[in-house]
Amino acid sequence: MRLKILFLFLLQMVFFSCESDSKENELKSFTLSHETLELSVGETMEITITEAPNTNAPLVWTSDNETVATVFFGQVTAVQSGTATITASLGEDTVSCVVTVPERTYELVWADEFDGTTLNTNYWTYEVNGSGGGNNEAQYYTDRPENIRVEDGKLIIEARKEEYLGKQYTSARIITKDKVDLKYGKVEARLKVPKGRGTWPAFWMLGYGSWPRAGEIDIMEHVGYQPNVFHCALHTLTKNGMNGQNPHGEQYFDYAVADEFHVITMEWVENEFMGFDRIHIYVDGVKTKTFAETPQLQDSGDWPFNDKFFFILNLAIGGSWGGAQGIDDSMFDEPVRYEIDYVRAYQLN
After folding, report:
1. Catalytic residue numbers, as ranges
2. Is the dihedral of CA 168, 219, 119, 190 positive or negative?
3. Are strands 139-141 and 167-171 parallel, antiparallel or unpaired?
4. Which residues form the GH16 domain (predicted)?
5. Boundaries of CATH 2.60.120.200 in the chain?
6. pLDDT tens for each residue of 198-228
7. pLDDT at res. 7
8. Reduced to 3 states, what is the DSSP secondary structure of residue 171?
9. Bond prior to 227 in cis (omega within 30° of 0)
10. Backbone phi, then psi, for 62, in 5-degree steps?
11. Among 3.40.1130.10, 2.60.40.1080, 1.10.10.10, 3.40.50.450, what is the CATH number of 30-101?
């Protein structure tokens, strides 16, 4: 009888011991080395599991916003500014880390607010010619106040339907070559494009040297026959508008973009991601496109965007792209104006 009681007692102890171990495993917490993390763009850091329940379930890592931060077996890489939640999952058990990638901070280094009544020729040079801009454009570029002027705190570039030195249209184009240039940083312009089929306003930059080897950055282009679209593009020696292989981006709107002013922004960042440069284009704070340097481009020398570039503002009429669907002369019943409120350039702090 005593042996029977002892046996039952030992059996009960084993049962409670197993049950206790089971509960301990079930209640064991699931934790990471970081609950929050702040990384700069391009920076990488490893998140590790510090405690986990016993389970045969596979460990799965996910990011809820891979445009901000990616994760690979716990290795987190910051892609661009914003917030992302990195989650580790073991079956139904999950634990997360919130990753913040702060905005880059910039210092203003140059600006033209177009105050006063005349164009600042310490910054800008008029280009006066009827050569077609290399795109078979139909206008003659002048420096006349009828075509370009500063008024009411804005630069006005006005295209006109008129016979002038063998052309049927006039307009204007200005550049900052040898006066103002930029190598990396942030560029911002607030502008309002004209409406009308055949218009082709642009805000862009060129490198010093021969085209296309020296490079071209089209921060903003708009063609009037696509009234709800802004375009951006790069041109290099082997990938340019002549062969149609240049990288480009578009941002679509549900209204005509000529109806209001827009803020166009470019961030041009050195060694931003894995040691490679990147160029980001935004319209009204919404990203249009990221252009990225790659090992192939770096090795081939076909990434000229690591030197100084100067600014260009112009309003073309017609041309190989702007005039692809003809020129609607009835648009000149009203003033055809490209208005620029300001152009600003910044460098990283």
Report:
1. 216, 221
2. positive
3. parallel
4. 99-349
5. 106-348
6. 999 999 999 999 999 999 999 999 999 999 9
7. 41
8. strand
9. no
10. -140, 155
11. 2.60.40.1080
Question: What's residue 67's pLDDT?
Answer: 87
As given in the structure block, the two tokens for residue 296 are 């192939």
User: What single-letter amino acid sits at 256?
Assistant: A
Where are the domain boundaries for CATH 2.60.40.1080 in the chain? Answer: 30-101
Q: Is 320 left (phi over 0), alpha (psi -120 to 50) or beta?
A: alpha
Residue pair 204/217 in contact by the 8 Å Cβ criterion:
yes
Topology, domain 106-348:
Jelly Rolls (2.60.120)
Please list, in sequence order, all residues whose beta carbon lies within 8 angstroms of the beta carbon of residue 38, skipping any fewer than 6 positions away.
99, 100, 101, 102
Candidate from 59-63, 127-131, 270-274 with smallest mean pLDDT: 270-274
Q: Give the Cα separation of 115 and 192 in Å (integer).
A: 17
Question: Per the structure block, which two tokens stand in for 246?
Answer: 């240049």
Whole-angstrom Cα distance, residue 265 to residue 187?
A: 6
Residue in the structure block whose two tokens are 């030195």 = 165
Tokens at residue 158, please?
A: 């006005």
Position 21, amino acid: D
- Amino acid occupying residue 236: T
> Left (φ > 0), alpha (ψ -120 to 50) or beta: where does 6 sit?
alpha
**Nearest alpha-carbon partner for 245 in 254, 253, 236, 258:** 236
DSSP tag of 27:
H
Tokens matching residue 283: 């319209």
- CA 335 centroid distance within chain: 32
Are 231 and 220 spatial neighbours (Cβ–Cβ below 8 Å)?
yes
